[in-house]
Amino acid sequence: MFVLLLAIMGCATAPERGSAAPAKPATAVAPAALTHDLLHPGSGDASVCRCDAARQVNGWCDHCGVGYVAATEVPSALLFETLDPHGHELDLDAVTCPTCLVALAYDGWCEACRMGWIDQRAYMTRITYRLGRGRVIDASGLTCESCLAFAEGYGWCGLCGRGLIGNVAFADRAVFDEAVEDVRILDEAIRTAAMCDLCGCAIVVDGTCPICGIEYRAGRPVFDPVEPVSAP
Predict the structure, then answer these.
(1) DSSP 17
(2) How does pLDDT run across 117-158, given as a tens digit for each residue?
(3) Packing angle, helices 197-205 and 173-193, rounded to 10
(4) Environment class of residue 107 by beta-carbon count within 10 Å: exposed (0-12), middle (13-18) or buried (19+)?
(5) Core-most of 1, 26, 164, 189, by most CB within 10 Å?
């Protein structure tokens, strides 16, 4: 899967990787709640629905065959794995990219390596990096009517002074606005993945579908498509 992702991203070799940290929840969801059986498709008990737990931790329910990112359903297992919505602890001593070293110190994004850093953890897509700058909350504890409505989609509540994208809360309006743009790209990737999984994956990494030969930037196709891979 990783080799396929590199092909979509147009990488000949793996970029240098570092590490980014998950958001700190408002009515916070404890990091301990994220168990391995929710992390990846095929790692859980397919006989039991785990959607409620998966929704809270950007996880996958094997019973229903659906993953969640900011409480948004992601029906494609390949797209969910490509989004990789959890921060990774990497060997920081191995990070030599100058931009990544700066990003490590300031929770920034490295365009060259196509990864972001939060609390010295690595996020492998811009969408999940920007969502990681918010705080995962338990939306069932919300009492504000506007916030409750935004938890079903996204919006900024002027009364509470926060933005919500599903179950992710933002205190900084600029950070929220950036994340909204990426969530719109996620929505497009989910729609596209229903027709071609690899095109959906290419959308979230600004890459090229190795089957259809379509290149994507900022959630949209870039014409002229490259030569598609011939069927065996």
Answers:
(1) -
(2) 999 999 999 999 999 999 999 888 899 999 999 998 999 999
(3) 160
(4) middle
(5) 164
Counted domains in the chain: 1
Enter the pTM of the model. Answer: 0.79
Q: Is residue 232 part of a domain?
A: no
Please check whether residue 67 lies inside any domain of the structure.
yes
Q: Are strands 121-123 and 115-118 parallel, antiparallel or unpaired?
A: antiparallel
Contact predicate 84/98, CB 8 Å: no
DSSP E strand boundaries for the chain: 60-61, 66-69, 72-74, 109-110, 115-118, 121-123, 135-136, 154-157, 162-165, 168-170, 215-217, 220-222
Q: Are 118 and 133 in contact (CB under 8 A)?
A: yes
Q: Can you list the pairs that 33-41 forms with residues at least 24 positions away whose Cβ atoms lie under 8 Å?
A: 33/57, 34/59, 34/86, 37/62, 39/86, 40/81, 41/65, 41/67, 41/77, 41/80, 41/81
